Amino acid sequence: MWSKIVKNRVSIRFWSSLVPDEPEGPCVLTDVPGPCSKKLKKDLGKMQYAGAVKVFGNYQKSIGNYLVDADDNVLLDMYAQISTLALGYNHPELLKVFQDEKNLKTMINRPALGVFPGEDQPKRVHSVVSQIAPCLPKINLMMCGACANEQTFKNVFIAYQRKKRGKKDFTDEEKHTAVINQPPGAPNLCILSFAGAFHGRTTGALATTHTKFIHKIDFPSLDWPVAHFPLYKYPLGEHERENAVEDKKSLAQVEDLIATYNKKDTPVAGVIVEPIQSEGGNNEASPKYFQELQKIVKKNNAYLVFDEVQTGGGGTGKFWCHEYFDLATPPDVVTFSKKFCLGGYFHSDELTPDKPFRVFNTWMGDPGKVIMLETIIRVMREQDLLDNVQEAGARLKCGLFELEEEFSEIMNSVRGPGTFLAFNIVKPELRDTVLQKLLQKGVLCGGCGDLGIRFRPALIFQKHHAEIVLDKLREVLNELNC
Ligand SMILES: Cc1ncc(COP(=O)(O)O)c(C=O)c1O
């Protein structure tokens, strides 16, 4: 990377940043959150519940990997707005996008794309599909990750019922019962998901989400099956036998649950899985596991959905995380959002709805965001950002392994591909302390599961940023060791 030509110029300093004018490191002037953030939170709280607000950002000043907060603290952002920023803050190529009047008009005249798409829409969709489609021919655009999963379930149910119904049209009874939520029009079908999964917060997606009670409590839900997801021990090389047992346990449960729900007359039409469970704890499973899962799903005439809302877009060092799994055939659906700026999914021809308005909403995505996505994809290619993620991730992971060895009584289980990395702290309260101490030192990270700390930097995160994170983490661990 260092000797390569970057955007037609040779990097001068060995640590030259991919985004010009980045600060050389974090700079913390106040407690985080500081007095300005606290005051703004109070103000906002008068109008809107703001309990989850951590700090207020100054998005005029933030740049590259650095979030500048309302108190002028400069934070190295390893969480990137919950894993969403592909190119960091204020990337020069993205700043140019809406200076072009054509693009600006596309954004401000936001059409209802399902009914009145702009005349350039086929070309724009083709440009995205042809560059990033995970071996699936069709795309459907939505707004967010939950919408992508929720609408995917509908595509799955439509295709499942179509197989049963054959060429026959809907019966009058189906038409009548559908609108009053009764079978056969609203049939008993289900989606199988996994313990520890996170797929979003709309009703269907939430029924497949199983991370924290606070996301679900008091909300009526659907009686859909939930299988065990493998929980690996680390280092992987020393626990191959136990981890293979975990794979088997999960796969056996998937088979059992499919059989049980078939017997209950609520067949499993689809299985949704994250290639790496993110919110649930950066829980990985082996390529072999996913290959076997795909076989089981196919054998049972169901559809396999990979939720790549968090793993998609390059953070793992590949565009799609499931590319690591060497599957016999592509999955039936791959959902996305976050780094793609808008939500949506790629799917097989078989899952295409056969009538209008069955999978639909007012905006069906946002053409302004598609333009941003085109720019992101172009910059990813021009700056070899997938290679960059692999290099920066390798340095970070290597440093984490060293820290894990040195501070084994505090941290363990370093894991993940690319910069999509995580490690565990031995106790939940101590994990929260480490996160808070890192923040006070100017490094913003996320938690996952009960014990995990996850890194989700932008794709422009580099080796020299990794050195900063490792130095700050070492300082925190030393403080805890005293
Ligand atoms: C794997 C996964 N799926 C779905 C979602 C839901 O996405 P959104 O919050 O955009 O609805 C998330 C959000 O974190 C996610 O991580």
Question: Please, could you describe this protein's structure?
Answer:
This protein is an alpha/beta fold. It has a domain of 278 residues: Aspartate Aminotransferase, domain 2, CATH 3.40.640. The protein has 14 helices and 18 strands. The strands form five sheets. It has a seven-stranded mixed beta sheet with strand order 5-13-12-11-8-6-7, with helices on both faces. A four-stranded antiparallel beta sheet has the order 14-15-18-17. It has a three-stranded mixed beta sheet with strand order 3-4-16. A hairpin with a 5-residue loop joins strand 3 and strand 4. The two termini are 39 Å apart. The N terminus is likely disordered. Bound molecules: pyridoxal-5'-phosphate (PLP).
What are the key terms here?
Aspartate Aminotransferase, domain 2; single chain; alpha/beta; 482 residues; seven-stranded mixed beta sheet; 38% helix; binds pyridoxal-5'-phosphate; four-stranded antiparallel beta sheet; 13% strand; disordered N terminus; 14 helices
Describe the structure concisely for a colleague.
This protein is α/β, with parallel strands linked by helices.
Low-confidence stretches: 1-13
Classify the helix fraction into a percent range.
25-40%
Number of strands: 18
Beta-strand proportion: 5-15%
| Rg, alpha carbons | 23 Å
Instruction: Give the helix/strand class.
Output: alpha/beta
Largest sheet: 7 strands, mixed
Which SSEs are present, and which pair or pack?
Layout (H helix, E strand, L loop, with lengths): L4 E2 L2 E2 L24 H11 L20 E3 L5 E4 L2 H4 L8 H6 L3 H8 L12 H12 L5 E4 L3 H21 L6 H7 L11 E5 L8 H5 L18 E2 L12 H24 L4 E6 L2 E2 L5 E2 L2 H13 L3 E5 L25 E4 L7 E4 L19 H16 L2 H22 L4 E5 L6 E4 L2 H13 L2 E2 L1 E3 L3 E3 L8 H19 L1
Parallel strand pairs: 4-16, 6-7, 6-8, 8-11, 11-12
Antiparallel strand pairs: 1-2, 3-4, 5-13, 9-10, 12-13, 14-15, 15-18, 17-18
Helix pairs in contact: 4-11, 5-11, 9-10, 12-14
